């Protein structure tokens, strides 16, 4: 095993920027990305020439989009790398930037995510291997089946899944960067025709466009550029793992989450009770119920009861997806994991305004990429 993050140079989030997530539009990805990067630079009080490496997450833009976009900031010769890891692309770009600074290669690194909707085919479709279901099992079908399995095992009813959407749409209504900014009632969530099983449209995330940028830096850079350490939470864990063979083969999303979260907690030297904020991969409502249990935020089968009692609300025991999550904030793919980091950073700074969870000092970001990979980060305010 290689070095743990705790054994390397400390790394801090010093700048965050977002272009609001939105439906597909005529806005170019260049305009989306530049908006986010300039906001992050302004937030950190840095200039473009201060950035020493770039990791650009995207899934749908095609070959070599990074230089075309960032040349508008100036030709500094900064190293650039494109990162694609399905839904976990932004989280992976952030991990690469963190490790770049932790290893001493750079003092300031930019993790950027941009995407616009476009046709996409999974690499597995070109692998030359056939499967029994072929293209018959779409993502919403997979999670509808998981929802039914969870209901059968726990006694959960459709309203229990709908409450995830009610909470997260309510949070998104408070978030100026969210694609969906409207609170919803139980009737609105469950009355629409189901897409699959009892998952209705408001229980499934929208895939639109947007951009997110995060600047990370070393302690030396914080001193050199006179950055306020009280606005620079430390990254205390970065964990990434891929799928293995599980006893519960149908619920690999939850199993890989348990693996990655366990690694992250071990790295950070903390446990579930030490978290105040969690941003997780809630592309479908059932995922929140599954993941909060596997993260240890509650017992197996207890998530519906805890959710109903407000444990996962802003102001509850632990705020889960205060940004609105993928369900309301949106899921533009490349930016998504980085958008989670911006929300956690705002929460730890105490700058989340109407979404602020009181006393937030540690937060976790979690993304799954097509079930094949899981990336987890833990941030803590140590100033």
Structural description of this entry:
This protein has 383 residues and is α/β, with parallel strands linked by helices. Helix content is 34%, strand content 18%. The protein has twelve helices and ten strands. The chain is globular, with a radius of gyration of 20 Å. It starts with 10 loop residues before the first strand and ends with a strand.
Structural class of the helices, strands and pairings?
A: alpha/beta
Q: What is the rounded distance between the termini?
A: 30 Å
The CATH architecture term is 3-Layer(aba) Sandwich
Q: At the fourth CATH level, what is the homologous superfamily? A: Thiolase/Chalcone synthase
Strand order of the main beta sheet, please?
Answer: 1-5-4-2-3
Sketch the topology as an H/E string, one letter per element: EHEHEHEHHHEHEHEHHEHHEE
Number of domains: 1
Strand segment tally: 10
**Helix content bin:** 25-40%
Report the radius of gyration as a whole number of Å. 20 Å
Number of helices: 12
Shape: globular
CATH topology: Peroxisomal Thiolase, Chain A, domain 1
- Mean pLDDT, all residues: 93
CATH structural class = Alpha Beta
How can the largest sheet be summarized?
5 strands, mixed
Strand content: 15-25%
Could you list the spans in which at least 5 consecutive residues all have pLDDT below 50?
Answer: none
């Amino acid at each position: 095993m290689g070095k743990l993050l705790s054994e390397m140079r400390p790394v801090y989030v010093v700048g965050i920027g977002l272009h609001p997530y939105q439906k597909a539009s005529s806005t170019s990805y260049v305009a989306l990305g530049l908006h986010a990067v300039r906001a992050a630079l302004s937030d950190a009080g840095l200039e473009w020439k201060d950035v020493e490496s770039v990791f650009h997450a995207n899934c749908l833009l095609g070959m070599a989009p990074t230089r075309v976009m960032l040349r508008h900031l100036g030709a500094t010769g900064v190293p650039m790398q494109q990162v694609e890891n399905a839904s976990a692309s932004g989280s992976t770009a952030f991990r690469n930037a963190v490790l770049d600074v932790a290893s001493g290669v750079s003092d300031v690194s930019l993790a950027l995510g941009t995407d616009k909707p476009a046709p996409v085919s999974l690499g597995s479709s070109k692998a030359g291997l056939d499967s029994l279901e072929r293209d018959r099992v779409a993502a919403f079908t997979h999670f509808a089946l998981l929802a039914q399995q969870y209901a059968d095992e726990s006694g959960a009813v459709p309203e229990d899944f709908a409450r995830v959407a009610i909470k997260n749409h309510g949070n998104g209504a408070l978030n100026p960067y969210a694609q969906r900014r409207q609170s919803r009632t139980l009737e609105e969530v469950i009355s629409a025709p189901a897409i699959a099983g009892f998952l209705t449209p408001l229980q499934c995330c929208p895939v639109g466009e947007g951009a997110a940028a995060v600047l990370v830096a070393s302690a030396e850079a914080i001193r050199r550029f006179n950055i306020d350490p009280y606005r620079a939470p430390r990254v205390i864990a970065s964990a990434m793992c891929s799928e293995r063979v599980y006893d519960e083969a149908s619920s690999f999303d939850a199993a890989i989450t348990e693996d990655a979260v366990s690694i992250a907690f071990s790295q950070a030297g903390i446990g579930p009770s030490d978290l105040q904020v969690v941003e997780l991969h809630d592309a479908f409502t059932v995922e929140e119920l599954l993941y909060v249990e596997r993260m240890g935020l509650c017992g197996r089968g207890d998530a519906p009861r805890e959710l109903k009692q407000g444990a996962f609300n802003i102001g509850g025991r632990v705020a889960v997806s205060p940004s609105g999550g993928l369900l309301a904030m949106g899921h533009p793919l490349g930016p998504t994991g980085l958008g989670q980091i911006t929300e956690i950073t705002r929460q730890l700074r105490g700058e989340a305004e109407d979404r602020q969870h009181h006393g937030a000092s540690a937060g976790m970001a979690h993304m799954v990429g097509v079930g094949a990979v899981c990336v987890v980060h833990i941030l803590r305010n140590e100033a």
